[in-house]
Design goal:
Elements (H helix, E strand, L loop, with lengths): L3 H18 L3 E2 L3 E2 L1 H4 L2 H13 L1 H23 L2 E2 L2 E2 L3 H25 L6 H23 L18 E3 L6 E3 H19 L1 H11 L5
Length: about 210
């Protein structure tokens, strides 16, 4: 438990903060939550490097449970257009988190013997891509409207130029691409704290 507690606290903090900050827009394509959520991968990778894949998976499970609790709370809070968290958003968020984080753990574990930066960068890149694709598809794509027929997401399927400048695509695709670009940027930025934290906790690991 002593190994798990710091990771669980850090993961819970990231998940809770992201669930709160996702309500606040940054520009046209992003929310503040897009800048905090990617650090969940940093927490997972640090736990994986220091304590191994089994411990990292337990931290991921704790983060998933925290996310479910946040979704349940959000579903009871009424915003301007209905519940803050709809069924599609809840399912998309939970599925994306669990799949992406577990794949991150798997990829990291396979690459852990390489140069220090390869495992955290590649695993985060793969996990982040899955996370974005799964969440935005389930939450907003017209193909998944059967999950919650009463939830009108026609606004997310309005056809517009990609990120305002590219080929025409549904709005949710622009939101997904913007989100993925932030995740990719932070995957690079997070290499610095990853190395510093690992160097402090387990110098021989780097």
């Amino acid at each position: 438990m002593q190994r798990l507690l710091p990771g669980i606290i850090a993961m819970a903090a990231v998940v809770v903060a992201s669930n709160i900050l996702v309500q606040y827009l940054v520009g046209q394509w992003l929310t503040w939550g897009a800048f905090t959520y990617p650090f969940a991968f940093l927490v997972t990778d640090v736990m994986n490097r220091v304590y191994g894949a089994a411990t990292a998976r337990k931290v991921v499970l704790a983060g998933f449970v925290t996310g479910v609790i946040c979704s349940l709370i959000g579903s009871q809070i009424q915003g301007e257009f209905g519940p803050l968290v709809t069924l599609r958003v809840a399912i998309g968020s939970g599925t994306a988190f669990l799949v992406a984080q577990l794949v991150d753990v798997f990829v990291f574990d396979r690459l852990r013997k390489g140069v220090w930066w390869r495992a955290p960068f590649v695993s985060t890149l793969v996990g982040s891509t899955l996370d974005t694709a799964i969440f935005f598809s389930i939450a907003f794509a017209a193909a998944f409207s059967w999950i919650e027929p009463s939830n009108d997401v026609s606004w997310a399927n309005e056809v517009l130029p990609l990120l305002g400048v590219g080929p025409e695509s549904p709005l949710w695709v622009s939101l997904a691409v913007a989100d993925w670009m932030v995740k990719l940027s932070l995957a690079l930025v997070a290499l610095v704290p990853f190395r510093l934290i690992i160097g402090w906790l387990r110098p021989q690991a780097v």
